[in-house]
Amino acid sequence: MKVFYKLICQLLILSMIWLPFAGNAAMISTGDVVASATDQANRDKIVEFAARADVQKSFESMGLTAANAKDRVNALTQEEVNRIAGRIDTMPAGAMSSGWWWAIGIIVVGVLIWHFYK
Known about the structure:
About 80% of the residues lie in helices and about 0% in strands. It has helices at about 1-20, 30-50, 55-60, 65-75, 80-90, 100-115. It starts with a helix and ends with a helix.
């Protein structure tokens, strides 16, 4: 029993000498925490976007399976993730591009001119 107590004492002394140098505590800035949360939110946004049925159909038409798309999203760097997430936010809702607005505007102007000069 004395040998056991001696071993425990030696381990405690060794750990008191070695462990204070092994640990590293530092303050984490708010900016780092917010950036990390934003980075994860952007990655989640892309994963959710790629999981949509219409996007998966588009991937399949290009010869890409859903599993391959997910692997490619996971392989993106954080800079690429942030850039793509920004593009997702600026995409037009309802899949109507700005070119259609010009076409509708020209048709309306044409109808008005035709109506007044008839």
